[in-house]
Design brief:
Largest sheet: 6 strands, antiparallel
Radius of gyration: 15 Å
Number of domains: 1
CATH architecture: 3-Layer(aba) Sandwich
CATH topology: Protein Transport Mog1p, Chain A
Distance between the termini: 33 Å
Helix content: 10-25%
Oligomer: single chain
Order of helices and strands: EEHHEEEHHEEE
Strand order of the largest sheet: 1-2-8-7-6-5
């Protein structure tokens, strides 16, 4: 299976630098796309993340605070879009949030609009966040305040969207 990156977008909160998001859109040459193929082709690595790479020097294998080479399919939770929204909203209920929460909420709503515009809402979603990942994946030292990522696979249109939100 081959993937072609067709779009990259990166946005940072330039007012207070309290968060950012990045997404990539890929087209596949086949219709049976799955998370294992995405991991195998390193679609979650920094080599596709020009926006953040322009700000800080990173290892090509980085995926937010994680090493993309260590990620496994079992690290992600599979859901639909409604389940993804519920997971994000539950994450937002954590009592440790501060002034960065409104930035994350705004960023998520912007990505939700993009998902709707690209007709990806009906896809399969796989998500991961810093609070629930295997301890072996958490870097030391960890400088990330938050990290939440999802992959959307829409097989009919042969489209993959990789997205993450964070603050480091």
């Amino acid at each position: 299976m081959k993937f072609n990156q067709i779009q990259h977008f990166f946005k940072i909160d330039k007012t207070n630098y309290l968060g950012f998001y990045s997404f990539n859109i890929f087209k596949a040459d086949e219709t049976d796309i799955n998370l294992i193929e995405i991991l195998k082709h390193s679609l979650l690595s920094a080599k596709f993340d020009k926006g953040l790479n322009d700000l800080i020097k990173r290892n090509v294998d980085e995926f937010g605070p994680l090493d993309s080479n260590k990620l496994m399919e079992s690290d992600f939770q599979k859901t639909n879009f409604n389940g993804l929204k519920e997971a994000v909203e539950k994450y937002w209920e954590d009592e440790d949030w501060g002034v960065d929460l409104p930035v994350f909420k705004t960023n998520f709503k912007e990505v939700e609009v993009i998902l709707q515009e690209l007709n990806l809402i009906e896809g399969e979603f796989y998500f991961i966040n810093l609070e629930t990942i295997r301890p072996a994946l958490i870097p030391y030292p960890n400088f990330w305040t938050y990290f939440f990522s999802f992959v959307c696979i829409e097989n009919k249109s042969q489209t993959v969207m990789t997205t993450y939100f964070g603050l480091d």
